[in-house]
Amino acid sequence: MQATPQEYYQHLYPYQKLVELLTCNGDELANIEFALEGDVYKRYLSVTSAAELKAEVANFPGIATVHFGAVYSYKPSSNTRLSAPVRRVLSFDIDLTDKAWLELGQSGVTAARCDKAWPVCAASVEILKRLLKEAFGYTRILVVYSGRRGAHVHVFDQAAMSLCSEARAAIVAYINGNASKDDLRCASGVRQVMIMHNMRKEVYRWFRRAFVIGMGLFDGCAAREEFVRRLGLDKYESLTRAVELLKDEVSRLDTGKEVWECIRAKLVDMSAVEPWVIEQLDCTLLAYVWPALDENVTRDIAHLTKVPFACHAKSGRVACAVDADAVWEFVPGLQAPQTLCWSQHAMDAALAHFHDGTAPPGEPMEVEGGATGSVEEAVEEVVAEVEGLVADVEDLVANARPKPRAGNQPRKLTWTRKQSPLVPHN
Question: Does 424 score more than 80 pLDDT?
Answer without folding.
Answer: no
